[in-house]
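Sequence and structure are no longer studied apart. To make this concrete, we show below a single chain and its fold as tokens.
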Amino acid sequence: MTSSVADAVRLSTPSEVDAFLHGRALSAIFKAGDCSQTDWALFAVRRAFAVHPDVSLGFVPVTKARAASQHLVERTGVRHESPQILLFRRGQLVFHCDHGGISEAALTEALARLSADEP
């Protein structure tokens, strides 16, 4: 999968979230609403993920998929902020950031660590 939100797997329900995370060695979920910060966060996500096709990317449109968004809060223990990115190894959360913390540099570093730790 090429990693841009246009190519991301849209996740609208809790069961879709669980199915997406199950069986994938490396994955990420980008949660975003309609706030003004989404555009620049999306730019950072696209650039950072472009060089990591090994990481499957999911997308939760929080205003239309509140149940999926809430399920991620319950599953990870990370309070929802929008925009937000969650990185997983074998379904377990290993990194997250939101708002101004979502930058190309932060994501590139986290993705490099995630990929390097994968056998």
User: Anything to note?
Assistant: The chain has a mean pLDDT of 89. The helical segments are 14-21, 38-49, 66-76, 104-116. The first strand starts at residue 9 and ends at 10. The two ends are 19 Å apart (CA to CA).
